[in-house]
Amino acid sequence: MRKKRILLLSEGFGSGHTQAAHAISVGLRRHSPSVRTRVLELGAFQHPTIAPWIFSAYRKTITSQPKLFGMLYKSKYKKELNRFTSMALHRVFYNATEDILEQLQPDMIVCTHMFPSIVVSRLKRAGLTIPLVNVITDYDAHGTWIASEVDHYLVSTPEVKERLVKKGVSPDLISVTGIPVHPDFWKPADREVVREELGLLDMPTVLFMGGGWGLIKEDELIYRASEHRDRVQLIFCLGNNEKLREQLSEDPRLVHPNIKLLGYTKEIGKLMDVADLLVTKPGGMTCSEGLAKGIPMLFYNPIPGQEEENAQYFIDNGYGVLMKTPEDIDSWFERLVREHESFVAKRQALLDNRKHDTNPNVCSEVILSLLEKQG
Predict the structure, then answer these.
(1) What is the value of pTM for the model shown?
(2) What does pLDDT average to over the chain?
(3) Interatomic CA distance for residues 255 and 6, integer angstroms
(4) pLDDT 10s digits, 72-86
(5) Do residues 269 and 294 touch, judged by C-beta distance below 8 A?
């Protein structure tokens, strides 16, 4: 009997969307041996030469012109993308999508980025009959995620569900699943064993993250934190920003046994296990991973738009705090050293209060249920 095929489509605008797709893929395969999954960054798959240039331009825009990005985000917030823009997106960047779907023959398409969803929705208007599920990977509901051709939405919170309903989506088409993180983030860990494995010290520890692109233009934050290196272990995850990692590794202020400068790593879960505090950009995936690990979070420089909404959700629910200036680092680090045991207790409280709806099993179960209903 032919296994059911689920195609997970993402895009490389940041790493969180694709991480969510892989997390869903792992969860589905662990739940059901009768399901096959495939993850594709759709535009990058079709245009492997051009795509990196586009992603690089996007990164430069949001880091150098965040207010402009915020204006664009808000201008399209209330409504779905118009037909003309959808057609242009399809013809310019996603022109081979129909051929890919014909070759792969999926029984369901799950999108963790809005661009593939927009293109698949357009194909569905032209006669494609494959069920389409959108997994919204932020704590907000932007209008570009919405289309009448989408069969179901998986969202992070009841508040996001309510926002979709206000935009005209039937509540019957929305399931609250949390943002899917890799199931391993939910595994309990022995901190002493992890510290030994990673070569880290048993002392107050802070993990710095900036997403897949690393800590871009955050020199002041990095150097401010480094002033506490004698009393606090500092782990900087610089993502794919190898140029910055090399630059920082040559700075004498950062050459210290209590400072670790890491490039891209697959050990984020373990690093979160041993850290007492996470200093991060409020990306939807990173925040969700931090939530799964129960680690208190400090947010810096949220990009206007979805990062602001992400940060606000976690602040409102007691999972994080917004840093207004780099000087805020000083007071937090002083507290961490002085009240280390209270940070450990706070972490346990966050772990105990994790909501069931954020468990990655929920996302897999809903998708498999929808697949079963299709027959």
Answers:
(1) 0.88
(2) 87
(3) 47
(4) 666 666 666 666 566
(5) no
Q: Quick one: angle between helices 306-316 and 284-293, nearest 10? A: 20
Give the alpha-carbon dihedral of 320, 321, 325, 326, to 10 degrees.
-40
Gap between the Cα atoms of 157 and 15, Å rounded = 21
**Which amino acid, residue 153?**
Y
Q: In what order do the strands lie in the sheet with 35-41?
A: 35-41, 4-10, 108-111, 132-135, 152-155, 174-176
Residue-wise DSSP of 278-331: EEE---HHHHHHHHHHT--EEE-SPPTTHHHHHHHHHHHTTSEEE-SSTTHHHH
C-alpha 173/C-alpha 129 separation (Å) is: 17
Report the Cα 68 to chain-centroid distance in Å.
Answer: 22
Q: Give tens-digit pLDDT for 337-371.
A: 998 888 888 888 887 777 655 676 889 999 999 99
In this structure, are residues 244 and 238 in contact, taking their beta carbons and an 8 Å threshold?
yes
Which residue has tokens 């954020």?
358
